[in-house]
Amino acid sequence: MAAQLPRSFTERMKELLGPEYEDFAETYNEAPHTGIRVNTLKISATVLPGLLPFPVEPIPWCGTGFYTEEGARPGKHPYYHAGLYYIQEPSAMSPVELLGVTPGDHVLDLCAAPGGKSTQIAAKLQGKGLLVSNDLNAERTKALAKNLELAGVRNAIVLNESPERIAAAFRHGFDRILIDAPCSGEGMFRKDEDMVRQWNEQSPRKYADMQREILAAAALALKPGGTIVYSTCTFSPEENEGGIFEFLSAHREFEVVPVGGTGSFSPGFDPVPGAARLWPHKVKGEGHFIAVLKHGGTAEGANAVASASAADGESAASRRGRALASAPPRSGGGRGRDTGGSGPARRDKTPAGRGAAGRSSSGHGDARRSGAAAGGDGLAAYGAFLRDQLAREPEGFPVWFGEHLYLSPLPGEALNGLKTVRPGWYMGQNRSGRFVPGHPLATALTPEECLRSLQLDGDGPEAVSYLKGETLSVPAERLNVAPGASPKGYVLVCVDGYSLGWGKWQDGMLKNEYPAGWRWT
Ligand SMILES: C[S@@+](CC[C@H](N)C(=O)[O-])C[C@H]1O[C@@H](n2cnc3c(N)ncnc32)[C@H](O)[C@@H]1O
């Protein structure tokens, strides 16, 4: 690497590593390792490697992770645009592997942007339960939302909040919390030389102060018996074992689950040897620290919605939110005939359900208009869309932001007062009585859930043409049309069976609905 490592950093590393330091220093003359992680929401980790045009090797600590070789360019393949994998630094795949997520859990990813670990959590949830992905930096939540959408995640809420406000709203609400903390980034010096330039001697202290506050808030948001995984990509003990020791001293109900010293994970330094470290001179990956913190209480307790209700006081809305929490998510509009009747969409169509909507930004329109929810007009349009375009009705609590409809894993009321970037899975927009489906709806759907689909060949030129936004000439015989449906209408465009986006078919032409901001360049 070209950048000079700061002297005070190398001095400290010599002291920490002793005789191992030479091996550690040598890694700065080697190229960083690269990897992809299979998105098991879409495809299995045993199938994808055989479909890829470049070789991959398994990553020992992540069953869905694979090393890629230099020159592989995994971002330049239609499968990447179908969300079949996420490009991720190999060590960065380890924290979620240690979080122990199972389908149905309520999971909070507190420092989530740009979403590498959130998409990994979503894959482990398999569409069941709840993922709240949060980041304090509003700009960075845009990439977070986009990556969740690319991965076809249906049950995620994206927030732009402080950890303290999340803890107040969802007190003891989550089974598992990931803190992938902001840090001085020493473990990434080899991969990203900007990290070297941004570092100074005060960096570890500055970040340790931030990390302390984030950890304290996470403890309040965790259910009794739940698990927090704290991770950084830095070497400084002050931001790692030091911060964890301080946290444990103030939170006696937590203990460290010993993962350090097992498998690929080296032990942490005293006084927290049970924490795990990934060293670049010992594994094929960059520097990482992980501590698994288990709360000693029993796992009984409120889930995220019930806790939100308790924190707000027992208002009618919160009682309803709590009651709904145990019910299965309901659909947004009802298929066909039930277009704006007395179904759940009407009851829940409060615009994100809340007076705080002015602070919300869906990114799919102007959330400040949310005082004017879509009327029966919007519901009728959505109902007609379901009837004419989809074979199955998507599930979730309907939340309207103005004319934009989302299906949320929580009732809209649960998000009252929180800066909400995405309240759930984006369905689309009512435009004067016509429902225009959103791109995230397409990326999460399978061909079986649509009345029309088109298969493009991953090796052929058409998939890239589609991703570039071009119109395709498609005879009706090439469409897969459900029995009794007309070929005219929205078509789920797929590459080898995996959805890419929408097209609109009429008279042999497929109008391209792939969004401009997502196009292949
Ligand atoms: C290491 S990055 C997260 C990477 C992410 N987990 C991933 O896998 O893609 C740390 C993130 O923490 C965010 N952040 C910084 N301070 C924060 C705070 N007090 N609360 C929540 N997020 C914060 C930063 O904006 C940054 O996006």
TL;DR of this structure?
28% of the residues lie in helices and 23% in strands.
Give the helix/strand layout.
Elements (H helix, E strand, L loop, with lengths): L6 H11 L3 H6 L7 E5 L9 H4 L4 E4 L2 E7 L9 H4 L3 E3 L6 H4 L8 E4 L6 H10 L4 E5 L3 H13 L5 E4 L3 H7 L4 E7 L12 H6 L4 H19 E11 L8 H10 L3 E4 L8 E2 L8 E3 L9 E8 L8 H9 L3 H10 L18 H5 L27 H14 L7 E5 L2 E5 L11 E3 L2 E7 L2 E4 L1 H6 L7 E5 L4 H7 L4 E2 L6 E2 L7 E7 L2 E9 L2 E4 L9
Parallel strand pairs: 5-6, 5-8, 6-7, 8-9, 19-22
Antiparallel strand pairs: 1-3, 1-4, 2-3, 7-16, 9-13, 10-13, 11-12, 12-13, 14-15, 15-17, 17-18, 19-21, 20-24, 22-23, 23-24
Helix pairs in contact: 8-10, 12-13
Protein name: rRNA cytosine-C5-methyltransferase
Keywords: Cytoplasm, Methyltransferase, RNA-binding, S-adenosyl-L-methionine, Transferase
Organism: Paenibacillus stellifer
Give short descriptive properties of this protein.
globular; 6-stranded mixed beta sheet; 521 residues; 23% strand; alpha+beta; 3 domains; binds S-adenosylmethionine; 10-stranded mixed beta sheet; Rossmann fold; Archaeosine Trna-guanine Transglycosylase, Chain: A, domain 4
